[in-house]
């Protein structure tokens, strides 16, 4: 995927003040990409961006302004606000590649578990709402702890990229490839997103048992 040129693109991260959003923004900024963090609170986004000023070009604003500014827009928001946020941004996201990174999970005394989603997955819900966007699912299984840790130079994991638009999935695979150690891998069409999102519950269980930050590697490819 290295033949895809990302240098002219702005990467927006909706929900960019949370650990996963900040971590992904850090890695993309270190790779030399322009990054815009979005939040419900512009001041929180600006504060988070200021914390990354030493690693690259990062600025913070509202989710709506970030969505409008981004050429590729990552959705890294809590599941309970997922549908409402996307429904409010259909105009800003029209025609754009939207990368849904959300895992619909619940937690109880037994740990994490996958929640049922009427559309099948968070990624499919995004596609149903954003009918004018090119929706891709990716970055579901990457440890926020590793992404945020400046001492971790290589994030050794594969990123399963799901979508029905080949050009869009190729670009998102290339986006994953800019992070040292990370490899974007096509993982199937949108209808296969559920099990990738749900796998995060298994990784959380692994991490709790082994005190680790487990990821996914695909062999023989």
Automatic annotation (TrEMBL):
GO biological process annotation, one example: copper ion import
GO cellular-component terms in the record? plasma membrane
Give the molecular function GO annotations. Answer: coenzyme F420 binding; cupric reductase (NADH) activity; ferric-chelate reductase (NADPH) activity; NADP binding; oxidoreductase activity, acting on NAD(P)H
Q: Which UniProt keywords apply?
A: Oxidoreductase
Every Pyrroline-5-carboxylate reductase catalytic N-terminal domain range: 10-104
Instruction: Report TM segments.
Output: none
What InterPro entries has UniProt attached to this entry? NAD(P)-bd_dom_sf (IPR036291), NpdG (IPR010185), P5C_Rdtase_cat_N (IPR028939), STEAP_metalloreductase (IPR051267)
The record's section on NCBIfam families has:
npdG (TIGR01915)
Stated name of the protein: NADPH-dependent F420 reductase
- The organism's taxonomic lineage, starting at the top: Bacteria, Bacillati, Actinomycetota, Actinomycetes, Propionibacteriales
